[in-house]
Design brief:
heterodimer; A: mainly alpha; 11 helices; about 70% helix; B: mainly alpha; three-stranded antiparallel sheet; globular
Chain lengths: ~200, ~290
């Protein structure tokens, strides 16, 4: 019962809308293999943005003082991550079905890393605000798109595996990000308490 | 007659008097926006501080469009939305919503001026006489650069204001930014695949930014189909549409009717200019 209520209160329109846009962009990437290495990172960035909205709680003023702890609420909300992950897997299956030659394990790792990065940053920001989604999603998208937007960054860091291309592999980046996200989520859940401004009674 | 007209003048002056401080205030807020300052810093780093030599125009002509235009759009969007919380208070002031929107639109002057500076720097890096501009005439080369550097810097923030006025979703600006980025990339790749196709040329130009040349083999510059001058007209029509759509929010009575009429005219003009941009200029791609 608690699970259903917590899930229902999620920012589903944002998560579903961003996942829907990601399907369109990823679908175009699958349909036009030459553009896949440009469009699939955009699709994954949108999925990371969708993940950043999963913890949004408009009624946080009330919810944060209920007996249901942040660990349980976050665990329930994490179920919503299945939507962006499923969309990403669907897009990758469609691309593979169209004969796109990509290192798929590395692409899967990139998908997991993108989604978890959005969620982890939202977890950290949730300790400060009830609706971290918009700010976190924008920041995460800009960080994830940095290698595409700022070519010198791509010389050092790559966030998506390119078929047969030189340059750095994205795998070490994503393993590091996954480890960092796990630590950030654990710390943010352990230390989440009422923000100072909210603990004061007017 | 004088008696009828006389009372109108103080009102008109009052409107103008309220508009100018509002525009100045919004422009100052925009110029101090961290997202915009970051965009300016990256643009400066890419075109002024960079030690790498720019030899292909496609190495740097998109910098202003992405950062001054795209990031400018996000900054203008957040600026527009930031006023929503104070709407109950601001809404009862004598200044109408369209007047406040018009004041917001003036912030685009800042990235537009920055775009002008970027254009000058770009021409300094790669003079217009350089073969990197492809088979275009000198005047068309200037049109290409204005369309790739200056107009996106103006249009991005205007689009951000329109988006902020009409769309509730707080992440709309970055979603649109990603969609435009993906679309321009997709149609550019399509244009490289089908260099002589007129429909693909129209699709390539059906965007606020378009590449007009590309280099596949070292040294050989391919000039795409399409007219840079008509594309410039299409971009300006898009800017006008963005301003009118933004002004439409909250407009009432005859002002609303006038805006809708102007929108229809701008829409028709944009469609005609897009078709002319796609079908004009070179009728096939030229590699030299």
């Amino acid at each position: 019962m608690m699970t259903g209520a917590v899930l229902r209160a999620g920012a589903w329109p944002a998560v579903a809308g961003l996942s829907g846009v990601a399907v369109v962009v990823g679908g175009c990437g699958a349909a036009f293999p030459a553009a896949a290495t440009v469009l699939l990172p955009v699709c994954f960035a949108l999925l990371a943005a969708a993940a950043a909205f999963t913890l949004d709680e408009p009624a946080s003023l009330v919810v944060d003082v209920t007996p249901t702890g942040p660990v349980r609420r976050t665990r329930i909300r994490a179920v919503a991550l299945l939507a962006p992950l499923a969309v990403g897997v669907l897009v990758m299956l469609a691309a593979a079905g169209r004969g796109l030659a990509l290192p798929w394990p590395a692409a899967g790792l990139a998908l997991a890393g993108n989604v978890l990065l959005g969620f982890a940053v939202a977890c950290v920001a949730r300790t400060r605000t009830g609706e971290p989604g918009p700010a976190v999603a924008t920041a995460v998208v800009l960080v994830l798109m940095a290698p595409a937007l700022v070519p010198p960054v791509a010389r050092w860091v790559r966030t998506f595996p390119a078929p047969g291309a030189g340059g750095p592999s994205p795998d070490p980046v994503w393993w590091t990000v996954l480890a960092g996200c796990a630590v950030a989520i654990a710390i943010s859940l352990g230390g989440r308490r009422l923000p100072q401004w909210r603990s004061r009674v007017p | 007659m004088t008696a009828v007209l006389a009372p109108a003048r103080p009102g008109a002056d009052g409107g103008r008097a309220a508009f100018v401080p509002l525009a100045v205030r919004e422009t100052r807020r925009f110029a101090r926006n961290p997202v915009f300052l970051f965009a300016v810093a990256i643009t400066v780093a890419a075109l002024w501080a960079s030690r790498t030599t720019v030899t292909d125009i496609d190495d740097g002509n998109w910098v202003a469009a992405i950062f001054l235009g795209g990031f400018g759009m996000m900054a203008a969007f957040s600026l527009t939305r930031s006023l929503r919380a104070s709407e109950p208070v601001v809404g009862v002031t004598p200044v109408t919503l369209p007047a406040r929107t018009a004041a917001l639109c003036t912030v685009a002057v800042v990235p537009f001026a920055c775009g002008g500076l970027v254009l000058l720097r770009f021409v300094q890096l790669i003079p217009v006489s350089n073969a990197a501009y492809g088979a275009f005439s000198p005047s068309a080369r200037v049109a290409v650069l204005v369309g790739q550097i200056v107009i996106p810097s103006l249009g991005g923030p205007l689009l951000g204001v329109a988006l902020g006025r009409w769309v509730q979703f707080p992440g709309a600006a970055f979603v649109l930014f990603l969609l435009l980025y993906g679309w321009v990339s997709l149609v550019t790749i399509l244009a490289i695949w089908h260099p002589d196709s007129a429909p693909v040329a129209v699709l390539r130009l059906f965007a606020p930014f378009a590449f007009f040349t590309y280099v596949l083999n070292a040294g050989a510059v391919t000039t795409c189909r399409g007219s840079p001058w008509f594309f410039l007209g299409w971009q300006l029509a898009l800017c006008a549409i963005a301003v009118l759509v933004a002004l439409l929010r909250g407009a009432e009575g005859p002002v609303r009717a006038r805006i809708i009429r102007a929108l229809a005219i701008a829409g028709v003009a944009a469609a005609i200019l897009l078709v002319l941009a796609g079908t004009g200029g070179f009728t096939h791609a030229i590699t030299a």
